[in-house]
Amino acid sequence: MSSTEMKVETLRWFNNRLEMVDQRILPAAFEYLSYYTAASVAEGIRSMVVRGAPAIGVAAAYGVALEALKLSNALEGRHSGLDPESSAFNKLDSRFRGNDDAVVFNAGMEEGFKVLVASRPTAVNLFWALQRMRKVWEGVATQSPQEIAQRLLAEAHEILAEDIRINKAMGAHGAALLKDGARVLTHCNAGALATAGWGTALGVFRSAVEAGKKISVIADETRPFLQGARLTAWEMVQENIPVTLITDNMAGYMMAQGEIDAVVVGTDRVAANGDVANKIGTYMVAVLAKRHNIPFYVACPLSTIDLNIATGKDIPIEERSVEEVKGFRDYHWAAEGVKIRNPSFDVTPAELVTGLITERGVVLQPDAQNIRKLMRGVQG
Amino acid sequence: MSSTEMKVETLRWFNNRLEMVDQRILPAAFEYLSYYTAASVAEGIRSMVVRGAPAIGVAAAYGVALEALKLSNALEGRHSGLDPESSAFNKLDSRFRGNDDAVVFNAGMEEGFKVLVASRPTAVNLFWALQRMRKVWEGVATQSPQEIAQRLLAEAHEILAEDIRINKAMGAHGAALLKDGARVLTHCNAGALATAGWGTALGVFRSAVEAGKKISVIADETRPFLQGARLTAWEMVQENIPVTLITDNMAGYMMAQGEIDAVVVGTDRVAANGDVANKIGTYMVAVLAKRHNIPFYVACPLSTIDLNIATGKDIPIEERSVEEVKGFRDYHWAAEGVKIRNPSFDVTPAELVTGLITERGVVLQPDAQNIRKLMRGVQG
């Protein structure tokens, strides 16, 4: 394993709480924020303290575990009599106090799931992780709240560890697609910061470098949240992988100049037919790559494929606050009085995708048929 | 004439000096800066106090006139004896002091041309205006410096007035291309602020509205200098023309959603074969427009067509300071240590251009043949 692997710990379990790097303030500062409840994790997802489809999934899993721990601790206090006035105890809704533990716990857990489900709409990993946690919960539903909470926490740990293993596997498959010396464009940040570590698209770059290939990265700055300028550039600089920053509108020029050999991006949801939802602007890069005969790859863990969605048209596209487009953070430059749109994702039709890089290998020219084949035997 | 016409006076002659709106600080502040010499005008062009191909041409013309006025005033002081220590007199290079007036004047003028020519490389209107001023100068070269200066100032005034007339003519031709209710995307700012007034692309919108059409504008924010967010949005808000701001990477999404009916942009230089250099990102918009069968129009005064350049490949593309891409103004967000590129323009091949909107009418499917025909009889 590379020594670089653990340079960025996007999410970590520490002192019985979830800690997440605050990605809103990177790279100016590197700080962890602490989370104790499903509601606070949901707010962390909504406000983009954590972002990137796989990382959102891991965060949501911990959100469920945290809620279970909170509820079981509160119920324990209720019976022990040691600390009847504890804040955890008092946080239990008074309407639950007359009910038995299972009713209180189950109602609290459903509230937790509800707030997490509503945090962001586009990345399917959120719903995938919540579904997986729910199944684990159902499997141990007859056990005590404390036991359920421990089982859910173990599952969240497993989802985190699994995410890194999957990224490594995708990295190996993807690295084989890149020639030595390749100049690879990426959009947004599909890196360690978008996952539990290693990254999807940037994981491919890390794996290529680990395999001894000299590659260089061209990073779209990715307005309005600037994940490319702030996060991808920062990750690549940390790894000593050569990286060049451009504004989003320069990608076409770079391709026309012959300065891009391949494109690798991440994804937030892939429909059953291979259509790819990803950060706004990905579609434009894909159209340009097609025009210039540049391969366009999507690094895509199986958890990002949504067989319940037939085509990209049905993927919900989040529209975020117009404040994000007025400027950056509190620095606004847009003219007063202008209307603003802020769709946060777009859909790239499968026909523009050269290949999906998954932990099971690369699916070239993805379509409904080869995606169905790929997903055979995968737990829904 | 519309009452809106003079709302924005980008450049104006006032108290024997050139005043230009400082476009670096718009829309937060609307301020004029004053210019007295060719060198200061060149610096104003270089630093983008003034930008936009036609406006740069007008500014350069005034730069030549200002230099002639400065030199002739200094020479007058030399002979009058009234003010031998005047700053204008002292600014004359000491090596000229022994020479006769014509030598001093001519050498000073050549210096002025030199610094103006070197200010920015891509917009051909700069060179076109300087060439025109030089011809006027040559035509009156035997007259006194004071007479030459007055003739050059009159020519600069004429170039300014002509620019507005040309924009109005382009506007009328272009407006006829837009349907009532059209939602029109534009990139960068080809507005009153990019010209002496009215604008090229935005002039088409103004003319369409004046003709009673209801149109709405979608403005790409246009990183890194944010001409769309700051200048185009501001101009349209001033005019009460509905305008929606998006980041550059949203144009593809908007087209895919069926929310764009046409594209109109300006240009900095059109090659003899119809290839169009314009603000970085224009090429990406053109490629997407083609994919979505959306007409892509370029508002292009004849002064922007460069018959000396065969194809877009030969148009010099300015690479500006990487500081511009690190953030905006002094607010930097890019990760430390990242390399940066900053090409300021790109080339859209003629095949992607539905039509060139000129003051002589619209040239559909521009190519070498119909551009040669269009330019017949135009002074080179």
How would you describe this structure to a colleague?
- The structure is a homodimer of 380-residue chains.
- With 380 residues, chain A is α/β, with parallel strands linked by helices.
- The first copy, chain A, has 2 domains: 11-166, Four Helix Bundle (Hemerythrin (Met), subunit A); 170-375, Rossmann fold.
- Helices cover 41% and strands 16% of the residues of chain A.
- The first copy, chain A, has a 7-stranded mixed sheet with strand order 6-5-4-7-10-16-17, sandwiched between helices. A 4-stranded mixed sheet of chain A has the order 11-8-9-15, covered by helices on one side.
- In chain A, α1 (38-46) packs antiparallel against α2, α2 (53-80) runs antiparallel to α4 (101-117) and α2 (53-80) runs antiparallel to α6.
- The longest helix of chain A is centred in the middle third of the chain and has 31 residues, at 145-175.
- Chain A is globular.
- Chains A and B meet through α8, β6, α9, α10 and β12 of A and α8, β6, α9, α10 and β12 of B.
Q: Which sequence of strands runs across the widest sheet of chain A?
A: 6-5-4-7-10-16-17
Order of helices and strands of chain A: EEEHHHHHHEHEHEHEEEHEEHEEEEEEH
Number of helices of chain A: 12
Instruction: Name the chain pair whose interface involves the most residues.
Output: A-B, 55 and 55 residues
CATH secondary-structure class of the largest domain in chain A: Alpha Beta
Low-confidence stretches of chain A: 1-6
Q: Quick one: how many beta strands of chain A?
A: 17
Shape of chain A: globular
Mean pLDDT of chain A: 94
Oligomerization:
homodimer
CATH architecture descriptor text of the largest domain in chain A: 3-Layer(aba) Sandwich
